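RETRY 2/3 - previous attempt timed out on the joint model. Re-submitting the same 691-residue input unchanged.
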Amino acid sequence: MNFKEKEVNKMSRFRKLIFSLAVIAALVVFMVSFVECQTKSTEAGFKLADKIAERAKKGEQLVIRVVYHNTGIAFAMLIKRGVEAAAREFGVDAQMTGPVEPSVEQQVAIIETLIVKEVDGLAISNVSAEALNPVIERALDAGIPTVSFNSDASGSKRLAFYGQDLVQSGKTEADILVEYMGTKGKVLIFSCDAAAAWSKDRETGVRDGLGKYPDIEIVGIVNTGVEEQACYAAIENALLANKDITGIAALDAVTTPAVGRYILRNNLAGKIIHIGHDLMPETLENIKKGATNASLSQDPYKQGYLPVKAIFEYITKGVALESGDTGVLRVDEKNIDEYLQKLEKGEPIG
Amino acid sequence: MNDQIIIDKAKSFEMVAKRKFTFRFFKIKETGIFVAFILLFAALSLASPYFIKVENLLNVVRQISLTGIMAVGMTLVIVSREIDLSVGGIYGLCAVSAGLLMTNGVPVWAAIVIALIVGIFIGFLNGILVTYVRIPALIVTLGMLNVTRGTYLLLSNGLSVYISSKTVTDPNLDKFIYLGQGKIFGIIPMMMIFLVIVMISGYALYGKSSYGFHIRAVGGNERAARASGINVFRVKILAFIITGFLCAIAGLLNLSFLSSVQGIIGSGLELEVIAATILGGTSLAGGEGTIIGTLIGALIMGILRNGLILIGVSPFWQTLMIGVIIIGAVATDMWLKRKQV
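RETRY 2/3 succeeded.
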């Protein structure tokens, strides 16, 4: 074949490629143009997959997966302990899984894979409002009992929720802040992920709670991210820029110890009132030292335990799935010694 | 006797033909990474019976679609001896822009066109800054990553943008949602179709057109390419524009698939896209790379993540194993490439 013929062949192959591309694109346009509203809704009554019911009947070990949205933080390990305890108690194969950093796409991919794997139950914590609703619906359509925990998937068809009333916890935080700070002052709110559904709920609660006091000004909310250095730097910068702050509401297990650390290192204990969330070991130390005035626990251990228990009992005994509130536990200078002792004994407090 | 000679000759021809086939097989650039892919695929098939299920494999392809689409653009950029770290930011900005426009009464198709223009424009800006202004691509695109990310956080106020019949009045919303969530014949995900279209287009552009030749020439030896009359700046700018355009497509598909977009959108995505491209055999030194290799690279990452979840590996072990297997896959590729030389 001479050069000219080779060139002609090359152009011909190129044209064939372009033609096949055009055919595929035309097919897409054709299909899309006939799309009608196809919102598939789960029927009013959820139906357990026959395979799962049969496995339960035969006494086979059930496989339950607990998908947490941020497995790379210390808080997640407490949930994991709850999951593992339930796995041992009920003899199920229950594991916590999920992305090591918050990522909607990764969490959706994980849940899709677990649906294909035909797990017997799913518990999902929602990284962001509505984003997981379609995949939760797919799980339910596949006959897999699906509940949410820690951070609810609002608007989804999940069968139950196990966690704290996040708005209420924000309001309680606001009330405690006023208890220590009084009805006047300037408040900063810190969150490791201000756009997340759980954070927005708590922030709503804090703002509602403080909104009753006209002389309390909420300066703003600072999004610190989860990376420790960046988080601490964000706190430093915010507090250097707002030297007249009298109160801090930290919304999570990442910012609460970090804010306490800043207050301690800069001798601000007693000058700034700090109320936080969750009982990380550093937070408990900070409460003991007076850098943090109080922190509210949502009982992450129970948040890992309850969904596994509920799904197991639903499948094996037909016990209806009902939501469970893991409550708002306050730890402050009055009961800190009790919780430090529990921590020392290795009890799963968080 | 004569028969024996004929048989012997036939056998020797067959051996030569086989050797030629083997020789040709190992000459193909993607052989190394393809072998790594096959080995991994086989191992995961043996490790989990669910891996080989059609539903699962289609899920995997759907899950890597967006990375794969953006990786086609990244291949062009890296082959031209540049880099684009802003892909995650462009992806997020286009998704947020489209979502906000739709929820504020702009017709769906207009919002799509505007989002695509945004992607193209940012790609164009990247290209101009790298070529005419001569700022290193690493700096330009890193800066652009922050600019785009900051922009979409400002536009959305850090809040999720949710599209539904309650927030978007345009009746064409259903068609837009179908682009990301639809399945042809109830099985084949629409996102996979988009991936196929982009891959074929990329293959045609890169492998069968003069632009592809120019981009490899520029990446291989910029001076020689310039001396031979190739407009180097135009080639590079076009690579960045194509990347921006593909990121916009990926962002729109993400919005369509999730029906919402969040503040954390696209975070860390640039590393995924670059990893898929490099894994596919594209050389960071420029001048070398293939679209098929990039597709295989994206698939390797996809099946790895999927397989480890099916096996039940903990998230921490997953992170470690993904790194180890990526190194292993590239090592296999480089070993086989040395055999070709």
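The longest strand of chain A covers residues 216-223. Closing ticket.
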